[in-house]
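Field reference: "sequence" (input) and "structure" (output). Example, XK-related protein:
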Amino acid sequence: MPWSPRATLLRDLVLGVLGTAAFLLDLGADLWAACQYALSGSYLWAALVLALLGLASVALQLFSWIWLRADPVGLHRPRPSGRCLALLHLLQLGYLYRCMQGLQQGLLVWRQEAPSEFDLAYADFLSLDISMLRLFETFLETTPQLTLVLAIVLQSGRAEYYQWVGICTSFAGISWALLDYHRALRTCLPSKPRLGLGSSVIFFLWNLLLLWPRVLAVALFSALFPHYVALHFLGLWLVLLLWVWLQGTDFMPDPVSEWLYRATVATILYFSWFNVAEGRTRGRATIHLAFLLSDSILLVATGMTHSTWLPRRAALKIWLPVGGICFLLGLALRLIYYGWLHPSCRWEPDRVDGTRTLLSPEECQLPQNKRVAGLAHTFFPKAKDAADLPVKG
């Protein structure tokens, strides 16, 4: 049954509130874990948690600040002065400011009986940036934190209550960010069927199930060879960075900041698939999956030859088979999703199910988030091909 525009607005507003709450909950769990490590005398673990948190936050603020400076003049009105915005980002509050701004705009639009096209488009503009930033934060901070916590649990042989809280919030936050990002891409494509509940659940599950074995493999290697995991990450990251560069990305407003984006994408690819180039993605996705699977098998095989170093080696006899089952199940769900549940990407001249279309500024002077729109055309190549065809009638 089609969703009304007002119901769509309410759904987006609720998702925005939940996303902001998830970010704050995950941040609180990380700070709580760092405090507990410090109180127990594990200063190295506390320092690593804070270092990962700090590096990810700095990268997030850089993205937010660069995008704000690249946005059209006069788009974000009213807003704080340039110095105030710079101070907010310097204090690592830029992302939270964007979340509050998005929620405020969404609430403003929802309260209106007949919201203007500009207000609708501007709400989408803000939501797309927030979704993209949330995805970056997930793979720059949440996923490495999850890997670190699992490595600590394997190395120590026990899991404290605050570690279980961190593990659960991390897994939920990662899958939520991937789902929210995929949903955000769909708002860039006019006349598309909405991402239904069944498709959303399958998409959520296959990302969660494929991510778990990868994180477990890296965590096992980190627990046994803590001095070599950085070399492993750096080696693969450089290969993935070269791969991203060869695909000729053009996401950021200038060549210097483009390398920040490429470095972030290479980090994402270390854990999960992320498409950045136009054309059919099946071949590249298959190569990436085979690459990560081979590397994960090598990490696990290396870890098992030295598993006697771990205090609870018996736990691996349960964790590793579960990881293998999760991978197979996640792969099956991924094939099911793209084979039968992936939404249609046809371009039609009219709108459907209350979804808003971001029109070009040349047509009606509405805000258009060209950054994420470009990624949407990359993610849905058939939609771009169909857009080039003449509209009949």
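Residues 34 and 69 are 34 Å apart (CA to CA).
The two ends are 27 Å apart (CA to CA).
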